[in-house]
Amino acid sequence: MNQAIEKVSSQLAFGGQQIRFKHQSQVLNCEMQFSVYLPPQAEHRAVPAVYWLSGLTCNDENFSSKAGAQRVAAELGLALVIADTSPRGEDVADDPDGAYDLGLGAGFYVNATEAPWKAHYQMYDYIVDELPALVEANLPLNQQRAISGHSMGGHGALVIGLRESKFSSISAFSPICHPTSCPWGQKAFGNYLGEDKASWRQYDAALLLQERSSAPPIMVDQGTADNFLEQQLDTEALIKANQLSGSGAQIRYQQGYDHSYYFIATFIEEHLRFHASNLN
Ligand SMILES: N[C@@H](CCC(=O)N[C@@H](CS)C(=O)NCC(=O)O)C(=O)O
């Protein structure tokens, strides 16, 4: 899968480069964009990468412009690989009513099995296989990887990190911890995966974690003033799964923080230092 990537834009930041690329995705069957921060160290050697998965309504630019992650990534010599949240393009299926929680901007990091979604919505394989192969073939990255994300992307990071050994540590902000039992998850999985709920389990972080006897290092931060906490995120399910598995995930409530990028910007430094300590 050694395909070409084309630079769309590039800015200098903290001595490194914040770059946006586009490419034709074989897995998603459409043109995609993603962003990469290359720290200054990447001029001289291949560096490890933290993959970032964003939440509902986002593309690759929310994190690059709002999280303020570049300063610490430059210090630690970490690349940031920032993905989009769904396939894109005029022929890509979307929610018929234009809802924000299904279709464009809401791929949920699953491989859809149901029409009309399955033609493009293969985000699990895109993040696990195509994107790492693409960036490692074209950019000065070594094969050391960590994965992180926010909300729907926190769900994606936990699920992918628990299932795939290629990521050495996992972190999440405000993740959707138990999507098989919340409205966002049930709507998305019902559409993308169909009514057979057995197929949903492979994409539920709480269910995956409780079945594990060990897991990679995990750090989760959840704000107590997050409007989505009660109805959608179910951090308590992840805490119970962590106790059942004994896998030692750090799951922290942060008093007074909400669901926004101000929360992410506050704690991203701790997450990047956590990943760097596990990558080295
Ligand atoms: N639009 C939705 C919420 C969408 C939302 O909060 N998206 C989060 C991820 S779940 C986000 O990161 N938004 C983009 C941003 O803040 O830049 C609503 O109004 O209920």
TrEMBL record:
Molecular function via GO: carboxylic ester hydrolase activity; S-formylglutathione hydrolase activity
EC number in record: 3.1.2.12
Reactions accelerated catalytically: S-formylglutathione + H2O = formate + glutathione + H(+)
Gene3D superfamilies given in the database record: alpha/beta hydrolase
Keyword Phosphoprotein in record: no
Top-level division of the source organism's lineage: Bacteria
Record's signal peptide: none
Entry GO CC: cytosol
Biological processes annotated in GO: formaldehyde catabolic process
Keywords: Hydrolase, Serine esterase
Catalytic residues, chain numbering: S151 (charge relay system), D226 (charge relay system), H259 (charge relay system)
InterPro entries reported in the protein's UniProt record: AB_hydrolase_fold (IPR029058), Esterase-like (IPR000801), S-formylglutathione_hydrol (IPR014186)
Family of the protein in this entry: Belongs to the esterase D family.
Physiological role: Serine hydrolase involved in the detoxification of formaldehyde.
Protein name: S-formylglutathione hydrolase
Originating organism: Aliidiomarina soli
Gene name as annotated: fghA
